Amino acid sequence: MDQLSAMRAFVRVVQTGSFSATGREMNTSQTTISKKVAALEKKIGVKLLARSSRDHALTPAGAKYYQTCVDILGELDEAETEARSEVASPQGTVRISAPVAFGRILLAPIMAEFFQRYPDIKVDLRLSDRHTDLISDGIDVAIRARQLEDSTLVARHLFDNPMLVLAAPSYLDRNGTPKKPDDLTQHNCLIYSGMQEVNIWRFTKEDKEHSVAVSGNFQSDNGDVLLEVALTGMGIVILPIWMVESHIKAGRLKQIMSDYLGQNLPFNAVYLQSRYTPLKVRCLIDYLKDKLPST
Description:
D-Maltodextrin-Binding Protein, domain 2, transcription, LysR family transcriptional regulator, five-stranded mixed β-sheet, LysR_subst-bd, alpha/beta, DNA-binding, WH_DNA-bd_sf
């Protein structure tokens, strides 16, 4: 048995969640991948995957062995890269997960310069406002504006993410302008449904925290959609400054309650905790930290 090949197969089965997908990726059959994993289990004398007719999951021993395999294979890949050149040249595909608006507004414009700097790196960008699981989705780096929820992950701060309260001038002309958080209870608020506390908006003024339960006739789990609805004059919205700055300058949106600081959920680059972080991942995160806004 080629143990390294079996370890790579095992890691990709865990990351893709599928023997058949791993087989296609490695240009072989589902049966061959299954045999590799079975041979690996036999060699080390431990059951790595608990299989059923429809699914499989890591056993406790398999979870520990998976992380060990990731570390070992990563170090081998790094050693091979360094052996090819006196100066390691980052290469390979980096799989990134990011919110839709973040990818459109902030990532897309800086990709050309990234590829000029690192011509041997490829990027597979998956855009979704839903939470992604790095292992099961095979993600190298996830861009998230939330607190780190898993001790197996590492978060690298990219930039702060101040939220602004906004409305179209037409809405304010019809309904008046709220001055303080409690005034929002009398307004139609456009709600982002991707938060844990969907209807609670939080603010800070002079180090004092304020929270208010808001309501409205429209909610969405997509920030782009909320922005477009707000531009029609339908209600009040709370969005990050990088999404709305151009609309404020053009007069299409007006910031309100500017003396209250909206909740700040800094953007982080999140990746799996490991003794080894691939060079391609380190280069990408360093680049994002350098190029993204510092606000």
